[in-house]
C-alpha cells in the first residue's frame, strides 16, 4: 500500500464489532493447567482472570509456553502468572488505532472496555480481540455487523 493510498477497508471499524465472542474468564484460584484446558477447549489465545466482576489480569498462551519451557508447575494459581497491567482499548476505538496499540505494546490480544457516559474513565472489560481479528478487518474480511 503506497503512502498516498486510502486506509484499509476495515480501518475505521469500531473494535466492538470484532469483540463478538463470549468473553472467556477464569477465577483467580484457577490453576495454570485449568487455564490451558480452557484456552484449548475454546480455541483462544488469551483469557481474562476475574474476581467477581472485577478484571484482575490476563493470561496468554505465550505465558503458558514460557512456564512449560522453564519447567514451571502447572498447578500454580493463575494469579501467580497473570499480567496485571492490562492493556485496554475503548469499544469505539477504530481498528487501525487498536493495531497501533498492539504493535506498540508488543501484544497479540487486547481487552476491549466499555467507554460511555456511565464509564467516562473506562468501564468494565466487555471483550477481547486478537491480532488475527485486527488483521482480518484491515484486509477487508467480513466484519460482524
Distance between the first and last residues' Cα: 26 Å
Specify the CATH homologous superfamily: CBS-domain
Query: Which topology does CATH recognise?
Result: CBS-domain
Outline:
globular
| Average residue pLDDT | 89
What structural category characterises the helix and strand content?
alpha/beta
**What is the percentage of strand-forming residues?**
15-25%
List keywords for this structure.
single chain; about 140 residues; alpha/beta; CBS-domain; 3-stranded mixed sheet; 4 helices; 6 strands; about 20% strand
Q: How is this structure best described in words?
A:
The protein is of the alpha/beta class and 145 residues long. The protein has one domain (15-138): CBS-domain. It contains 4 helices and 6 strands, in the order E-H-E-E-H-E-H-E-E-H. It is globular and about 50 Å long. The relative contact order is 0.23.
What is the fold's blueprint, element by element?
Blueprint: E1 25-26, H1 32-42, E2 46-51, E3 54-60, H2 61-69, E4 88-90, H3 95-105, E5 109-113, E6 125-130, H4 131-138
Parallel strand pairs: 1-2, 4-5
Antiparallel strand pairs: 2-3, 5-6
Q: Can you summarize this structure?
A:
The protein is α/β, with parallel strands linked by helices and 145 residues long. The chain has helices at 32-42, 61-69, 95-105, 131-138; strands at residues 25-26, 46-51, 54-60, 88-90, 109-113, 125-130. It has one domain: CBS-domain.
Amino acid at each position: 500500500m503506497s503512502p498516498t493510498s486510502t486506509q484499509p477497508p476495515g480501518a475505521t471499524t469500531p473494535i466492538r464489532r470484532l469483540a463478538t465472542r463470549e468473553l472467556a474468564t477464569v477465577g483467580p484460584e484457577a490453576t495454570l493447567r485449568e487455564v490451558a484446558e480452557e484456552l484449548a477447549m475454546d480455541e483462544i489465545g488469551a483469557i481474562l482472570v476475574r474476581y467477581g466482576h472485577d478484571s484482575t489480569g490476563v493470561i496468554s498462551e505465550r505465558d503458558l509456553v514460557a512456564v512449560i519451557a522453564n519447567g514451571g508447575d502447572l498447578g500454580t494459581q493463575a494469579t501467580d502468572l497473570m499480567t496485571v497491567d492490562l492493556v485496554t482499548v475503548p469499544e469505539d476505538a477504530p481498528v487501525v488505532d487498536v493495531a497501533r496499540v498492539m504493535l506498540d505494546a508488543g501484544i497479540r490480544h487486547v481487552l476491549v472496555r466499555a467507554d460511555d457516559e456511565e464509564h467516562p474513565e473506562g468501564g468494565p472489560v466487555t471483550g477481547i480481540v486478537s491480532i488475527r481479528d485486527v488483521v482480518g478487518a484491515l484486509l477487508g474480511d467480513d466484519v460482524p455487523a
